[in-house]
Amino acid sequence: MIDKPAGGGQTEILPATWRDLRSLLELERLCFGRDAWPWVDVLASLSFPETVRFKAVREEKAVGFVIGDLRRPENLGWIASIAVHPAHRRQGLARLLLARCEEALGVRYVRLTLRPSNTSAYASISPAATGRPTASSATTEMGKAPS
Ligand SMILES: CC(C)(COP(=O)(O)OP(=O)(O)OC[C@H]1O[C@@H](n2cnc3c(N)ncnc32)[C@H](O)[C@@H]1OP(=O)(O)O)[C@@H](O)C(=O)NCCC(=O)NCCS
Q1: Which of 27, 59, 66, 96 could be 82's S-S partner, Cβ–Cβ 3.0 to 4.6 Å?
Q2: pTM (two decimals)
Q3: How far apart are CA 126 and CA 23, in angstroms?
């Protein structure tokens, strides 16, 4: 599916697979620095059956991704990670990724874990931004969902 977020170029939101490991790992490291998941965790998140994952692609390059954890018994989805390349931020990509991820999770509540200091992420995940109800968002200093 092709989306054209405001202010940005043509963007595709596509399912991500283990074949995207290298490019998503690069993005992970660029966006999270010392908090970045090790490659084995990124690979696991791209392979587990109970996760949904999407990448934002521009000019055949992955410039963002989202990983959602499905906790079906609790009717809950957990955004384990979301990141957009610095050069492509503030163009609506996180919003597109979240919307697609929430749709694929298909649960009533979606939670996101992030740093209390990360105001940009707070803003972009607000219910007003995604148009869906959210449970109270847990916050940690690591900015990643607990496993
Ligand atoms: C958080 C992050 C994913 C946002 O990506 P993005 O594609 O720039 O977000 P969007 O363009 O969809 O922004 C949606 C809304 O969020 C808010 N927002 C995003 N970045 C912001 C910033 N730097 N300052 C203030 N508000 C911001 C705005 O309300 C924005 O809407 P607007 O541009 O219409 O005002 C990106 O900044 C990032 O990768 N950060 C590092 C990784 C991270 O912290 N991930 C979250 C924890 S897992």
Answers
A1: 66
A2: 0.83
A3: 28
